[in-house]
């Protein structure tokens, strides 16, 4: 799957994965970590994208959740 990703996206994802691993290793609550990452992502989108582009990203994420695709790709843990 990562073979299809642009290099910047793959690299950024790997860094985020390491940050998540570190935060969970510090015994931070998983929901708090996820919320902080989402908040940071939203802040970055506001600074770098227009509202329509943000809405498309968020709609794609919501569609992935509703279809079950997210759990299939990421592995179900909840």
Please tell me about this protein's structure.
It is built from 4 helices and no strands. The protein has one domain (2-74). It is mostly helical and 78 residues long.
Secondary structure tally, helices: 4
Per DSSP E runs of 2 or more residues, the count of β-strands stands at 0
In terms of structural class, how would the helical and strand content be classed? mainly alpha
What is the makeup of the main sheet?
none
Question: What is the 3D shape?
Answer: globular
Straight-line N-to-C gap? 23 Å
User: How much is the radius of gyration in Å?
Assistant: 14 Å
What count of domains describes the coordinates?
A: 1
Q: Roughly what fraction of the amino acids lie in strands?
A: under 5%
Series of H and E elements: HHHH
Question: In terms of per-residue confidence, which ranges show pLDDT below 50 for 5 or more consecutive residues?
Answer: none
Average pLDDT works out at 92
Which range best describes the helical content: under 10%, 10-25%, 25-40%, 40-55%, 55-70% or over 70%? over 70%
């Amino acid at each position: 799957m990562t073979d299809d990703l642009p290099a910047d996206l793959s690299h950024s994802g790997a860094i985020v994965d390491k940050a998540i691993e570190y935060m969970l290793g510090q015994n931070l609550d998983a929901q708090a970590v996820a919320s902080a990452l989402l908040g940071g992502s939203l802040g970055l989108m506001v600074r770098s994208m227009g509202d329509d582009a943000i809405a498309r990203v968020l709609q794609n994420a919501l569609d992935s959740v509703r279809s079950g695709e997210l759990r299939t790709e990421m592995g179900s843990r909840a």
